Amino acid sequence: MARSQKNITGDETIHYVSARKQREDKKKHASTAIQPPLTPMIDIVFQLLLFFLLACQFRMDEGQIAANLPDLSGKPPPKTIPVDPIDITLQATGRDGLDVLIQVKRTDGVAAELTTAEELYAFLTQIKSSHGEQADDVPVTIEPIGNVRWGHVANVFNQAVRADYKKVGFKPSG
Amino acid sequence: MVKSRVNKPGPADLAFNMTPMIDCVFQLLIFFMLTTQMASADFVNMRVPKPDWSQAKKPAEENKAVVNVVPYTQSEIEEDSTRNGIAKEYKLGSLVIKTNNMEKLVTELKKARRTSQDPKEFVVELRADKSIRYDHIEPVLQAMQQAELGRMYITAMREQG
């Protein structure tokens, strides 16, 4: 047990101060701890967090494929077509027209009938390699017919771009 | 000598340690604040095409307009199955254009081009649901041609990674 010790001077009376009293005195005179009020801040933070959790909708990772539009300005088309163009026709097949038949035509008649994008890519790559230096000038025209789904059209367009053709576009309508 | 709390008389002091929870909450809050992009009128909720080995690139943000070809919702298709694959309406920004009013789409595209930062380089992004039939997309392409646009972008999903 700790004992209180005090130096007595002059005519001061000796008082016994218990250890408990000493602790209470010490507590009373101790400096007050200052703490900023955290509760309102936590309230606001929770409100914000709830808002973001409820309002947040993650967006899919979308991108863009560049395409050319046919020129309707009335300028005369070039007199000579330098290389044999590739015409790709898409037709809806299957139940509710959900599938697609891809026909690749060249000036010498129907070149191929395909059903998948991978087949089309392989075919386009093969044609491109046969053109040598002129390969970049080969125009690829896509002609979707009627009720073909846009997903198929975009997929075929993507395969032409993937095969590194530079002049890919849609056939002008009308 | 340290007194045991277990043997302390009276009710026990129950203290809930908030610090780790507040740490986590702050981390989440900062994450959401940094990653959230507020909803834009340009991005109507739809399933855009997802081509195999997609060549779609990161979208350009400036000097373009987005034409959304909006499909009917699943519940609307269930009510009337003939709506499947048909465009409900076109949307240019927040402007709704009916499918039978293509003159308005041409006018608005011309206006958007005229008021753009660089009319010569102005591009329109075609954003359509993958289930829409091409005969409902073709009028939009024709409208773009009539608005004398030379280039366009097709919106598609990007390849992951």
Provide structural commentary:
- The complex is a heterodimer of chains A (174) and B (161).
- Chain A is of the alpha/beta class and 174 residues long.
- Chain A has a domain at 86-170: Nucleotidyltransferase, domain 5.
- In chain A, 32% of the residues lie in helices and 22% in strands.
- Chain A contains four helices and six strands; from the N terminus they run ααββββαβαβ.
- Chain A has helices spanning 19-29, 39-55, 117-131, 150-162; strands at residues 62-68, 86-93, 99-106, 109-114, 139-144, 167-170.
- In chain A, a hairpin with a 2-residue loop joins β3 and β4 (109-114).
- In chain A, α3 (117-131) runs parallel beside α4.
- The longest helix of chain A is centred in the N-terminal third of the chain and has 17 residues, at 39-55.
- The model of chain A has no long low-confidence stretch (mean pLDDT 79).
- Chain B has four helices and five strands.
- Chain B has helices at residues 19-35, 74-79, 102-114, 138-146, and strands at residues 64-71, 87-92, 95-97, 123-128, 151-157.
- By secondary structure, chain B is of the alpha/beta class.
- The chains are: A alpha/beta (174), B alpha/beta (161).
Number of strands of chain B: 5
Q: Helix proportion of residues of chain A, in percent? A: 25-40%
CATH topology of the domain at 64-154 in chain B: Nucleotidyltransferase, domain 5
Count of helical stretches of chain A: 4
What form of chain A results from the Cα inertia axes? Answer: rod-shaped
Distance between the termini of chain B: 62 Å
Spatial arrangement of strands, main beta sheet of chain A = 4-3-2-5-6
Taking all residues together, what is the mean pLDDT of chain B? 85
CATH topology of the domain at 86-170 in chain A, anyone? Answer: Nucleotidyltransferase, domain 5
Label the CATH architecture of the domain at 64-154 in chain B. 2-Layer Sandwich
Provide the spatial order of strands within the biggest beta sheet of chain B: 3-2-1-4-5
Q: Using the coordinates above, name the CATH class of the domain at 64-154 in chain B.
A: Alpha Beta
> What about the largest sheet of chain B?
5 strands, mixed
| Biggest sheet layout of chain A | 5 strands, mixed
CATH architecture of the domain at 86-170 in chain A: 2-Layer Sandwich
Class derived from helix and strand content of chain B:
alpha/beta
